[in-house]
Amino acid sequence: MSTATAERPVKVMKAVTRYRLFWPAAVLAVLLLANLAFTPDFFAVHLRGGHLYGSLIDILHFGAPLILVSLGMTLVIATGGIDLSVGSTVAISGATACLHISSSADPGGVGTVLTALGYALGTALVLGLVNGVLVAGAGVQPIVATLILMVAGRGLAQLITDGQIITVTSEPYRLIGGGYWLTVPFAILLSGLIALLAALLTRSTALGLLLESVGGNPVASRLVGIRAMRLVGLVYVFSALCAAVAGLMVSSNVSAADGNNAGLWIELDAVLAVVLGGTSLNGGRFSIGGTVLGALIIQTLSTTVYTVGIPPETTLVFKAFVVIAVCLVQSPAFRAELAGRGARVRRAARSRTAAPTHREVGE
């Protein structure tokens, strides 16, 4: 076998591993296979009563809100910012919708639910505009501007619910997060549709390139005529709207709004999902597909914790170690260092093997 033929698989493997989505997909596959080792029917999907059930369906279903929040976070981070207020927006949107439905004379009416959705999305639009104005207009640091709304927004959600859990009984509203359509949970279809639209808008048009330009070099993008401030404000609005839809899913799934716990710390999971998907926190290039895989990794990791039977008090520590390992595996510098050390060890071993012994030297 020639040297070129022997090296061809190595070159192909290197080319595959350089593909942006390879490592997130590989990590997700490893986590799924790990669950299969503990649950033999983990990949089984059953159809009962016209609805699909199974562990894979549950991962997609319960991961839908995180996927939506992570999509908005991806575009914000692509511009060099960050949005810590998405968790509060999740709570506010759910509280706004549930308050209107619970106080309505016809909670199960389609018109009532549509009005509630309008109130929730309208409120999120205002919150996104506030973040956009603070960051793009007033020049406030993104982490500070969104931290303000993160704290104040949680208080606003508590004011809307009056510190209580608002329960609702409305089948049309329950469809958003807990209902099924075409045998599949509606939340999966909705999050998939929004992810597809985001991917099309950012990759089939110049929008994605403009966002990467603003995040990669804001000064140069402004000098070439890109309206960077308008784009920055737009991504914060989009992030708030995605968080609002996620909040509707969360409150709809449990038929209740909890201003204190709904969306709590989801912003941290969203940042992790974005990073695991290969998007740099420094801004610039981003990946919608990678973010979706990153969110599924986070949700699969939560499922793995319960499947394996890890004690609840060590759950967060376990997740932290896994996330650190995943980030190291994805790091090109870390992989290059490992490859370099491995090459040095192999060269040293070959040199010791090839070196003549004292007896051979004497002969």
Question: What's the structural blueprint in terms of helices and strands?
Answer:
Layout: H1 3-17, H2 22-38, E1 45-48, E2 51-54, H3 55-78, H4 86-103, H5 110-137, H6 142-161, E3 165-167, H7 171-178, E4 180-181, E5 184-185, H8 186-203, H9 207-216, H10 218-223, H11 228-254, E6 256-258, H12 266-276, H13 288-308, H14 315-330, H15 332-354, H16 358-362
Antiparallel strand pairs: 1-2, 3-6, 4-5
Helix pairs in contact: 2-13, 3-8, 3-11, 3-12, 3-13, 4-5, 4-6, 4-11, 5-6, 5-11, 7-11, 12-13
Summary, kept brief:
It is built from 16 helices and six strands.
Explain what you see.
With 363 residues, the protein is mainly α. Helices cover 74% and strands 5% of the residues. The chain has 16 helices and six strands. Helix 3 runs parallel beside helix 8 (186-203) and helix 3 (55-78) packs antiparallel against helix 11 (228-254). The longest helix is centred in the middle third of the chain and has 28 residues, at 110-137. Mean pLDDT is 87; it is low at 359-363.
